[in-house]
Amino acid sequence: MADLLAAQRANPYRVRAYRRAADALLAIEEDVAAVAQHHGLEDIDGVGKDLAGKIREFLETGTIRAYEELKTPLPPEVQNWSKLPGLSDSLVTYLYFRLGIRTLPDLEQLIRSHLLRTMPGFSGSEERLLDAVRERLDS
C-alpha cells in the first residue's frame, strides 16, 4: 500500500507509516493472526488503530478494500490526460484520486482557478494546457 500511496503522492508521513508497520510486522516472531486474535496488533510498534483494522480485514477476508481501491486503474480517458502539456502520470493520478478531478470540465475549472500551478509536478503553461483541454472538449 505504501508504494501505491507514494505513486499517488499521498502524504509522505502516511506512506512512511505503512512502511514502518510492514517492517514491524515482518520483525515479530509470533504469527500475525495469533497476535490479532489476542487483540495485540496495536501493541506492535508502528501499528495504530487504522492499520490494525486493515490487518484484521485482510485476515478475515483475504483483501483490504482500501488497497483494492488504490490498485484501481484510472479510466482510459483520464490516463490520456498525461499526454496534455505539463501533466505527468503521477500528477494525473493525484488529481483523480486525491482531488476528485474526474472530467475534463473539472480539469478546466482547476486550471482556471490557478491552483494547478501550485502543485508539485506541474511543469507547463496554464494557457497551453487550457487550450489543449478546450480542444479536447470541442472534439
**What's the alpha carbon Rg, rounded to whole Å?**
19 Å
Helix fraction, binned, reads 55-70%
Characterize the main sheet. Answer: none
Summed over residues and divided by their number, the pLDDT gives a mean of 91
Listing every helix as H and every strand as E from the N terminus to the C terminus, the arrangement reads HHHHHHHHH
Supply the helix-strand structural class: mainly alpha
Q: Distance between termini? A: 38 Å
Total number of strands:
0
The outline comes out as: elongated
Q: Given the structure, what is the number of helices? A: 9
Strand fraction band?
A: under 5%
Give the uncertain stretches in residue-range form: none
Describe this structure as you would to a colleague.
By secondary structure, the protein is mainly α. The protein is built from nine helices and no strands. Helix 8 packs antiparallel against helix 9 (126-138).
Feature tags:
single chain; mainly alpha; 60% helix; elongated
Task: Indicate the topology.
Blueprint: H1 2-7, H2 12-27, H3 32-37, H4 49-61, H5 65-71, H6 76-79, H7 89-97, H8 104-112, H9 126-138
Helix pairs in contact: 8-9
Q: What is shown here, in short?
A:
The protein has 139 residues and is mainly alpha-helical.
